[in-house]
Amino acid sequence: MKSSFCNLFVVSLFMLLLACETKKTQGGKLKIVTTTGMIADGVKNIVGNHAEVISLMGAGVDPHLYKATQGDIQKLTEADIIVYNGLHLEGKMADVLHKLAKKKTVIAVADGIASSKFRKLSATTMDPHIWFSAVLWKDAMTFTATKIAAKDTLNAKEYRSNTEKYLKALDELNLWVHAEISQIPQNQKIMITAHDAFGYFGDEYGIHVRGLQGISTVTEFGLKDITDLVSYIVAKKVKAVFVESSVPTRSIDAVVVGCKAKGHEVKIGGTLYADAMGADGTPEGTYIGMVKSNVAKIVHGLK
Q: Which CATH fold would you assign to the domain 179-302?
């Protein structure tokens, strides 16, 4: 009953705020609201000083489980542009985003990637973790920049210039990651994480990845999942496993204990940024810094 009341309240608030939708003041900055920090960082690189960019999800926040607050709904309704990932990453926000798309510019960055490039997990499910391939992220940001420039034609030329610089930086990042991962011996290129977020990373950079949970942290893991993963790690003599900043450590801790019980010592290779970046103002609080931090830990743990 309480849940129904809360849902009704949020819907009512949403409709009220939608009726009071604000617009950018003449000569003012665009208001762009994004869901994840990775998207916010990419958009900031595109728009420079011409827009105020807000991310709803900060460091350590799991987008799979995130529910829009009343404050979030107000920010979304006041935005000139909304940018989200798509592919059901923000599953619990889908209805709100769908309704807002009827009234304003709402961009799903995944729409910029050819469907043939998605990791297909079932007939209707695609892996949403597209940012773990710098190549795919480049496609996503190119698409996003085009959509933003179409909305704000006055600054379109500068957006194109900013985007060219950012895409060059992503190309350089991609080459750097390939070079770093190549330092790991081929038989040691096995990466174990809390949930299956690094599939695109594995495909792009030639490393086998396996998560205890599925692509969404909404799914629960059980004793069989732990047992199977322990057996795999022991058989493959995996040197390190990794926890994630947005997922509780208990899952991987259980795997480490299980491996020890079978006589195989596996270490925690570090905390990776999977579905959220690091804190604002840190290198890991940027997309490129986040990727470099992850890669440094992966190489150190597995080499």
A: Rossmann fold (3.40.50)
